[in-house]
Amino acid sequence: MESTRGAAGRRRDAHPFRVEVGDLRRQPGKVRTLRIGAPLSELAVSGSAVPEEEPVELEARLESVHEGILVTATVRARWRGECRRCLKPTSGELVAEVRELCVEHGDEETTYRLDGDELDLEPIVHDACILDLPLAPLCGEGCLGLCPECGADRNLEPCSCVPAPDPRWAGLSVLTGGRAESGGGRPRPRQGADGSP
Questions:
Q1: Is residue 21 included in any domain, yes or no?
Q2: Which structural domain range is residue 128 located in?
Q3: Is 171 within a domain?
Q4: Which bin fits 194, alpha (ψ -120 to 50), beta or left (φ > 0)?
Q5: How many other C-beta atoms can be found within 10 angstroms of the C-beta atom of residue 77?
Q6: In this predicted model, what pLDDT tens digit does every residue of 41-76 receive, in sequence order?
Q7: What beta strand segments (E) does the chain contain?
């Protein structure tokens, strides 16, 4: 385990996901494994977020390759959000698998930056979390949500509200006397004066 004493230790404390890779780069094919856990800020999407005090766990395998450093890792973090159906607080764990190449002078769209003998894993961890956070979380697959008419939580009590008619059937309901809205099926054929069709 790397020591956190001295100036190097203080830098590590300030930037826990930044690691020295000079020895790794000088030995192509060499592999190093590491585990880091630390909070990260600004991990949020529209429906959920990782609390800033919550540690993000990184288990990574760093491999020295010709182009730079190949990072294969698993990222884990607990998130909190609001159920999209019943609006109650909900939470879960994200688990993201990543495999990224870090180079000194590469395409920012396809690679991550390698700054000499120092590799900052924070951008990789950040992007992995953002991509895996749920945009519309659920407290459970069976959540019944809130009644759109009275607002009752249908997970806790039954709702007697009658669903509003589908506006797409409004024109047909005029012809059928409202049977289309109530699911009465096709309109009856007109009958003659003697009762025949």
A1: yes
A2: 6-132
A3: no
A4: alpha
A5: 25
A6: 999 999 999 999 999 999 999 999 999 999 999 999
A7: 18-20, 31-39, 48-49, 55-64, 69-82, 89-103, 112-113, 118-120
Rounded CA-CA distance 99/119 in Å is 15
Distance between CA atoms of residues 25 and 173, nearest Å: 74
- Residue 180, pLDDT > 60, answer no
What's the whole-model pTM score? 0.74
Element (H, E) at 4: none
Q: What's the CA angle centered on 72, arms 75 and 28, to 5 degrees?
A: 150
Number of compact structural domains in the chain: 1
Judge whether 108 lies within some domain: yes
Residue 140 in domain: no
Distance separating alpha carbons of residues 105 and 65, to the nearest angstrom? 15
The larger pLDDT score, comparing residue 56 to residue 184, is at 56
